Amino acid sequence: MMTRRQMLLSSVAAGVMLRARPAAAKAAQPATAVNFAMPAGACDCHTHIHGDPAKFPFFAGRVYTPETALPEEMAALHQALRVQRVVIVTPSVYGTDNSATLYGMKARGADARGVAVIDDKTTESELDALGRAGVRGIRLNLATGGVNDPAVGRQRFQRAVERVKGRNWHIQIYTNPAMIVGIKDLVAAAPVPVVFDHFGGARATAGPGQPGWAELVELVRSGKAYVKISGAYRASDLGPDFADAAPFAQALIAANASRIVWGTDWPHPNSVTGPGRKPTDVSPLQQIDDGRLLNQLPVWAPDPAVRKKILVDNPAALYGF
Question: Quick one: pLDDT at residue 25?
Fold first, then answer.
């Protein structure tokens, strides 16, 4: 347990680091100090790296173009948050090119793991190489591409299971609760762990009666699925503390705290291309205060032992730290 003096010194250090940010930095850095004792080995289970486009070109079929978010910026973020470990996820803007993710993982060393994006053209030898680099799962992004047909979701999920079932990897899914209804039986029977991003895509304004929410909670309760209580601002319409997301986080934790992990969703990309804009136009990153975001975790999980499970023990088991 950190003393009050240690917490104050950490807060001052975080403030100094924030003021020392390079003028060219675009990705958000915490403006609020963490107000509770972080356990050793804490993990941010959902981040992205956007490299220099000259070195890491974007996928031609992307639906948005983000600003850069570099490993040194991520390191500054986690120093301020007192987070040791990280999981870097390949975002949709790179298609199946995982180079930027690997670049970020290499910069972080043994404290990093990755989640890759693949397709039917990805060879087994390429999967082997990803595994050696620290990749521990593959992502099905059904949300950014607007996939809402359960038949498509089922087909993609079944193909993903075949690719990873012999590798001790997991399948991570970014989708909405309605899709969860259509794939629940496959998730329950899957021979590999399944992880749902960002509260399973639930929206606080839709309430707990929204289609798919009860199914998601049941999958968590039965131990058949993990959920990332990540990017709370995606579930909430009430910034900056996202109070309306709290009942959803609390319900998932109460269902089975051993199947919950936490993440920032840094650098908070905005994947919506507005009217009159092209996917190739640069969309500014959202400026989310990750210190304030992290400070919601004790509201959702008041017990330090439960927070340690969410921040340390569950990620260690899922990602092999």
Answer: 60
